[in-house]
Design a protein that fits this description.
This protein is mostly beta strands. Helices cover 4% and strands 39% of the residues. It contains five helices and 51 strands.
């Protein structure tokens, strides 16, 4: 029996399917580049070249918009740790590219401080891992990050092979909150951002690691056991600029550096500071400033800071003032104190709280997880949130005047792009937010191209998409048929695209064919084309239809030549419905069958696993595990906030390149914990959730969570002081989630006078910065959405 290419055909054919309009009237989406492997960023050279970063550590180069066959400019996979949110996350073109050609890259370096890559991955592979131990969310696979300049040869198209490392910093213990964005200012200054490198599964102040405190945070350095109130590790690295007596890290900051040396620029606000990193910093107190943008023609920064369990933030930092803005993380999130960190009574936060809210710069706009940004939008807000793109429209964009100075922002988890139009003062106005591309597939980078249009990078779909505007022109609609669609070789097929249409009366379209699957549309220009296929395969033929205004549409036709049967992937373990707890070893086993039914060798098999976080719908943390060339093995269930699951995929590949995949899912075992207080009503924190007690919550069995309780609380007008937890732990302490349902109670006793202040080894507090006007939605202390 002939087996069809159903899965492959569906994937390819969707490129040509016209979707319902997802953009405002007059705007149109165009897929410029496709068939990419998890692209993360796009950059434009003044000579028309386009550079694309792929998360695995590869920089691709296109000759221009019409190029469908990119070349590999640089392969940095051996150095890059491509795991969860880590990888090659940005690429930029040197501002003087024509005179001094170079591209800049920002990537997670696969080695801890002082180490050499690869530490956790393997040379030249696409996907890396983190073994257990140390475990990605247990002790963590410690890495760093690099800002590097890649000089090009005189042809402006070839990398010389030299990597000029400008900065090597950003200690990252856990697999999220890595580095993110670079941006060049008009004066040539280079801005670079990085996350705090801390955990998203517990309140991280540096208490874990083997050895403890592997990033060497004070007090005590590597190996020291950090504890409140003096701990300064984990997320508190974002406040490192305020603490004295230790070198300043770049975690949770944005820096401004010389693009030739990586050194601080002499006009930076802290240029006279004795610490070289402090001299570089222009903003700090950020959790994960994955994307930011400069207002065209200025040094003013608009920053998208990926939130934890409640808020996503858009922050503003003025570039022409002497203030180094502190945005408050982890002591603040949104414009309120973060309840769980407030309860721990860490000196770094307590000294910040003494100044009140003006000690930090509040977000200009923040939106709450699982709440719509605009009414009736189709975004999947149930999946959580992660702000993942920021761009400012220049005044000379190709968009209508009403978009001048507008701020565009994207959320990859929700799958939407919005626009915040400028107000009367010319600044983006949070009261003027509208839908722009809704839905948009996994947008992780926004940029205005040289054509004056917004481009976005689709991480999961492997595409670079342009959003063009025309008040009169509309793109054509490509339609192509194949006759016949199957047969034995040699098979001659006629392709007909004459049914393609253009919605604009009188517009004329032209045709360009790609018949030989080489990426070049150079095989014919008539409405019809003919090709003869001589080998068994699935033939993929594409036609590009272009109207007089240059708008394009892509049509795809598929032809089965001979018996192009797919291989078959079969997973025998884990069995369907498998449930496992954190740290449990899950055995897997599978095989691959070729089109002839014979078993394929082990070298034809590859395994990958994605971690799914499922507050309602599931969103992916891709690539938490990979194994190539094996029929069986084991993987360890990593620690993660519940509800969650592990999705294991087996892919098999035949010698002629045909593939097939199958996926199985392993659910996390959970335990119901009840957090109670005596008397009732005390706001307690368990993991990422803070609520008045008593409340019940499901947690991943054998995972670790932090329990926290406030030192004092007023109940019924009577002040009460913390006495103890029923398990004997400190007021803030970690527990391993037990198997049976368990109740944990925090006991309080009435006091006749205010409880004494906690002892503190607080660093000297920094002077507060001036906060801009804040526009937020009402605060809440309940968190169930996935952190980024």
């Amino acid at each position: 029996m002939r087996r069809t290419w159903g899965v492959v055909a569906l994937v390819v054919a969707t490129l040509a399917v016209a979707c319902e309009p997802a953009v405002p009237e007059g705007f149109h989406e165009y897929v410029v580049f496709d068939r990419l492997r998890q692209p993360t960023a796009v950059a434009f050279a003044p000579d028309g070249q386009v550079f694309v970063a792929e998360k695995r550590g590869v920089v691709l180069r296109y000759d221009g918009v019409g190029d469908d066959a990119p070349t590999v400019l640089a392969d940095l996979r051996t150095n890059t740790h491509n795991f969860w949110d880590r990888g090659l996350l940005d690429v930029q073109v040197a501002p003087d590219f024509l005179d001094d050609p170079a591209v800049y890259v920002l990537y997670t370096y696969d080695a801890p401080p002082g180490g050499t890559a690869p530490r956790w991955g393997s040379p030249g592979v696409d996907d890396d891992g983190c073994p257990t131990p140390p475990g990605p969310n247990d002790d963590g696979c410690v890495v760093t990050a690099r800002l590097s300049r890649l000089p090009l040869a005189d042809d402006h198209r070839t990398w010389t092979g030299e990597e000029q490392v400008l900065l090597h910093d950003w200690c990252q213990q856990y697999p999220s909150h890595s580095i993110g964005t670079m941006a060049f200012a008009p004066d040539g200054a280079l801005y670079v951002g990085g996350g705090d490198g801390a955990s998203f599964t517990f309140d991280d102040y540096g208490q874990r690691g083997t050895p403890r405190n592997p990033c060497g945070d004070p007090p005590g350095g590597v190996g020291a056991v950090l504890q409140p109130p003096s701990a300064q590790g984990g997320s508190l690295r974002s406040q490192d600029l305020r603490t004295g007596g230790d070198p300043v890290t770049l975690d949770g900051t944005i820096v401004r550096v010389d693009p030739d040396t990586g050194a601080a620029l002499p006009d930076n606000p802290l240029a006279s500071h004795p610490d070289p990193n402090a001299r570089r910093i222009v903003a700090y107190g950020l959790r994960n400033p994955f994307r930011f943008a400069l207002v065209p023609g200025t040094d003013d920064l608009w920053i998208g800071d990926v939130g934890s369990g409640i808020w996503e933030e858009i922050n503003f930092s003025r570039g022409d003032d002497p203030v180094v803005d502190n945005f408050g993380w982890p002591c603040y999130e949104g414009n309120i104190r973060r309840p769980s960190y407030d309860q721990i009574d860490l000196a770094v936060c307590e000294t910040l709280y003494t100044f009140g809210p003006l000690a930090v710069r509040a977000p200009v706009y923040s939106y709450r997880h699982r709440v719509e940004v605009t009414p009736d939008e189709p975004c999947t807000e149930q999946n959580g949130s992660s702000i993942s793109g920021i761009a400012i429209a220049p005044d000379d964009s190709s968009y209508p005047d009403g978009y001048d100075g507008a701020l565009f922002f994207a959320d990859a988890t929700r799958g939407c792009i919005w626009v915040m139009r400028a107000g009367d003062d010319g600044l983006p106005d949070p009261g003027r937010i509208e839908r722009f591309v809704t839905p948009a597939s996994a947008p992780v980078d926004l940029a205005f191209g040289p054509d004056g249009a917004l481009w976005y990078v689709d991480l999961q779909g492997g595409r670079i998409v342009r959003v063009g505007y025309s008040s009169t022109n509309h793109p054509p609609v490509a339609r192509v048929t194949a006759t016949p669609t199957r047969g034995d070789p040699p098979l001659t097929v006629t392709f007909d695209a004459s049914g393609s249409t253009d919605p604009d009366p009188g517009d004329v379209v032209s045709y360009a064919w790609e018949l030989d699957d080489d990426g070049e549309f150079d095989d014919g220009t008539d409405p019809t084309a003919t090709a003869t296929f001589t080998t068994d395969r699935l033939a993929v033929v594409r036609v590009r239809v272009t109207d007089l205004a240059g708008s394009q549409s892509l049509g795809v036709a598929l032809v089965e030549v001979g018996d192009p049967s797919n291989p078959v992937a079969v997973v025998s373990r884990p069995e369907p419905g498998r449930v496992a707890e954190v740290g449990e070893q899950v055995a897997f086993e599978g095989t691959g069958l070729g089109p002839d039914g014979r078993e394929l060798p082990a070298s034809a098999l590859s395994w990958t696993a994605d971690l799914l976080h499922c507050p309602d719908r599931c969103h992916h943390h891709p690539g938490v595990f990979s194994l190539v060339g094996a029929r069986s093995g084991t993987l360890t269930m990593p620690d993660h906030e519940f509800p969650a699951a592990l999705e294991l995929t087996l892919t098999v590949r035949t010698p002629d390149g045909r593939t097939a995949s199958t996926t199985t899912r392993v659910e996390y075992r959970s335990t119901r914990l009840t957090l109670a207080s005596s008397p009732a009503g005390v706001p307690l924190t368990g993991g990422g959730t803070t609520k008045p007690a008593p409340f019940e919550q499901l947690y991943a069995t054998n995972g670790r969570i932090t329990l926290s309780a406030p030192a004092t609380v007023t109940i019924g007008g009577v002040p009460h002081a913390f006495v103890g937890w029923s398990d004997g732990g400190a007021r803030s302490h970690e527990i391993t989630v037990p198997t049976p349902p368990t109740t944990l109670t925090a006991t309080y006793a009435p006091v006749t006078a205010p409880a004494p202040a906690a002892s503190s080894t607080a660093p000297a507090p920094a002077a507060p910065s001036t906060a801009p006007t804040t526009t937020t939605t009402p605060a809440t202390t309940t968190s169930t959405a996935a952190p980024g």
